Amino acid sequence: MSTVIDGQWHRLDPRTIAAVSTLVMAPMVPTVGVMLLSGKVQVALITSLIWVAGGLVIAGLTAVGWWFTRYRITAERFELRRGNLTRSHRSIPRDRIRSVDLTADPGHRLFRIAVVKVGTGGQAGDGAELKLDAIARHHAETLRQELLFGDAPTVDTHRQGATEAESTLARLRPAWFGYSALTLSLVLIVWGALGSAVGSFTELLDAMGVFRAVADAATAAPVLAVGVGTAALLLVGVGGAMALSVEMWWGFRLSRERGGTLRVRRGLLTTRSISLEQRRLRGVEIAEPMLLRWAGAARLNAIATGLSRSREDHQPENKTLLPPAPRAEVDRVAAAVLREPQPPTGTPLRRHPRAALRRRTTWALGCAAPAVAAVVVLDVLGWVPTWLAVSAGGVAVLVACAFAVDAYRNLGHGLTDEYLITRSGTGVRRTAALQRSGIIGWRITRTVFQRRSGLANVTATTAAGSSCYPVKDVAVGEGLALAEQAVPNLLGPFLERH
Q: What stretches pass through the bilayer (predicted)?
């Protein structure tokens, strides 16, 4: 038996106190520095004293929590005790442990410790996961190996970084970081952070004359100032998005370990190791945001049971198996993850009736109507030239129709011996390959307008992923036949045949 799993009660690593204190105190240096540059010496001194006092209080509370937190691992159970005034004693049977994930932020990495999350594979909740924050890094890896596979790695194996039975399914290629420039969510995060920084340091920027210089430049050459400002904003957004992508995905590696467990490792400043058992996998989903789709790229997500839906700030969800990558690579990795010779996501899909196109065109024109009405009002009031109003209204209608056609072309469904494939979406096109054996029910919905068009949404329900994977706006007869063929005798007894 290893020194980790000895049936004795252990405390967390005491370096946790130093890591938390460092994380709290680190922002004080730039904050006080900005105050000093602004000439507010007294405010900087008072802020420093308050910050140090707060840091000491937090360090004390962390020390108390560390003293009263203990864990024990026996041959049968994983147990965690914590709390003084309010005590908590939680335990998980070892045969129910399905994942052991490791995380280390810069503070933890500085002191060579890591956070260990032990999950049961059940739905996210208080009883589905135990968290050790934190233990020594080498201790955490040893614990992970023994809880998942029943034996701790030797020192040589740990230094090699992988066991002989581990196989690599995908590695990061530096060229993939270029796709982050097309990831609008990352660009918006950067712009939001930039706006927050400007608001926080308004006084300093004003004292340095930045606002005055910008106002003078805009007055002297407004067109040039707008052009330069727009270009600078785009450069900052793209550069920041690439920097965020590097931090999230640096060192990415997707591998398969013993017993078919999938493991994702990634992170530059904050390292993460996420585990997923093969038997919890019910399929995969390919997500293609519009800009990435135009560049021929996509992301790969797992459809699995028991994955936590909680998400850290600015971090991908635990279901993400592959960062933005070329579509061909995504299909290859999907086949490797599912252990299929060919990717089911590459199956030719059946198109949906033309009535689905009419529905989307109606929605699109309805969305464009307010813009057209606005330019008509502006033209009537004489605030804009007629030619500009007509052009703007025409562009709005054309863009709306283009989105409608794209949304219709993205509709599709298919069926293989093992998988149901559905595809829909325009802003983000999603293609899901769901194991037919993982379908536990069907939900048929029809709006008033769908009934008039002979259409329906046929949704497969499952215990994995987002729980519902719809085949949207399919002909009623075809949708019901698809459901019956995918899972025979599940829907059939409730149908009336005409």
A: 17-37, 43-68, 176-201, 221-246, 361-381, 387-405
Q: What is d(CA 71, CA 118) in angstroms, rounded to the nearest whole number?
A: 12
Mean per-residue pLDDT, 202-230: 75
Instruction: Report CA 1 to chain centroid distance, whole Å.
Output: 38
pLDDT confidence bin for 103, thresholds 50/70/90: very high
d(CA 470, CA 457): 6
Rounded Cα distance between 238 and 235, Å, is 5
Q: Is the pLDDT of residue 416 over 90?
A: yes
**Strand locations in 137-280, DSSP E?**
167-171, 253-256, 262-266, 271-276
From the CA atom positions of the chain, what is the Rg in Å?
A: 28
For residue 387, the model assigns a pLDDT of 85
pLDDT band at 498 (very low <50, low <70, confident <90, very high): low
Q: Which amino acid is at 368?
A: A
Three-state DSSP string of 287-341: EEEHHHHHCCEEEEEEEECCCCCCCCCCCCCCCEEEEEEEHHHHHHHHHHHHCCC
List pLDDT tens digits, range 200-214.
Answer: 667 666 666 777 777
Q: Are 458 and 470 in contact (CB under 8 A)?
A: yes
pTM for the model: 0.84
At residue 155, does pLDDT exceed 60?
no
| CA–CA–CA angle 115, 13, 26 (5° rounding) | 70
> What single string gives the DSSP state of each residue in 31-71?
HHHHHHHTT-HHHHHHHHHHHHHHHHHHHHHHHHHHHT-EE
Sign of CA dihedral 369, 371, 373, 379: negative
Phi-psi region of 66 (alpha: psi -120 to 50; beta: other; left: phi over 0): alpha
CB-based contact 107:20 (threshold 8 Å): yes
Model pLDDT for residues 331-369, shown as the tens digit of each residue:
999 999 999 999 999 999 999 999 999 999 999 999 999
- The per-residue DSSP string of 80-122 comes to EEE-SSS-EEEEEEGGG--EEEEEE-HHHHHTTEEEEEEE-SS
- The C-alpha atoms of residue 171 and residue 29 are separated, in whole angstroms, by 37
Residues 275, 262: Cα–Cα separation, whole Å: 6
Q: What percent of the chain has pLDDT over 70?
A: 90
Entry field: residues in the chain: 498
Residue found under tokens 């054996």: 437
Longest dimension (CA), the chain: 85
C-alpha span between 178 and 412 (Å, rounded): 30
